[in-house]
Amino acid sequence: MKNSNWKQYFQISSNLAVLAGVILVVLQLKQSTDLLELQILKQDSDSYSASALETLPENFDEIHYKAVESPEDLTGAEIMSLDKYYWGRQVARWRGLYDLAERGLLDDDSWRRAIREDAAILYHPFGRAWWRGIKNWETTLPADLVALVDEELLSSNHEPQLQYLQGLRRRVQEEIKKSN
Predict the structure, then answer these.
(1) Residue 92: how many CB atoms within 10 A of its CB?
(2) Average pLDDT of the chain?
(3) DSSP sequence for 33-83
(4) Considering only CA atoms, which of 163, 46, 35, 127 is closest in space to residue 93?
């Protein structure tokens, strides 16, 4: 009789151990699936950004400055370069950060802070016009992301990029004069 109780105890213990093992395997599969999904998202975002950046002209900084200083003088090719950069670099990054937050892998404050900081590249008439066009054309952008960029661009807390760049140029010239 005592032997029968021990057999039942061992059988139940063995079954519980097998059940725990199955549960651990299922959890491991879930983690592996989540990790694979993240790697695919990152790879997709990185490849899109890289392909957009690889095809930018060498004088892209000059084009961006022209967009800030005198957007009315931009050529069609320059507008295409800016579009490629803003879409490939900025929006693809924002969407990737948003997707990570949606999956619970990035806290809400982090993606919002990154977008607020990145939006500075659009603090000029061309940038705001570009954003208005994209957000109306690209309907797959999450509403939260669109609202945050809109809020950031409409806020009056930012020094216009042209004034910032001109002030930087002036400060650099002053430093050069001091060192001579």
Answers:
(1) 18
(2) 82
(3) HHHHHHHHHHHHHHHHHHHHHHTS-TTHHHHHHHHHH-GGG--HHHHHHHH
(4) 46
Other C-beta atoms closer than 10 Å to the C-beta of 18 total 10
pLDDT in tens, 18-77: 888 889 888 888 887 777 766 766 666 666 566 666 777 889 889 988 988 889 999 999
Residues 6+ apart with CB under 8 A from 51: 88
User: Can you tell me the distance from the alpha carbon of 173 to that of 98, in angstroms, rounded to the nearest whole number?
Assistant: 40
Sign of torsion over alpha carbons 79, 153, 66, 53: negative
Tokens of 167: 């002030």
For 108, residues 6+ apart whose C-beta sits below 8 A from its C-beta are: 101
148-176 CB burial, b ≥16 within 10 A, e <16:
bbeebbeeeeeeebbeebeeeeeeeeeee
Q: Helix (H, G, I), strand (E, B), or coil: what is residue 156?
A: coil
Two structure tokens written together for 145: 């992301």
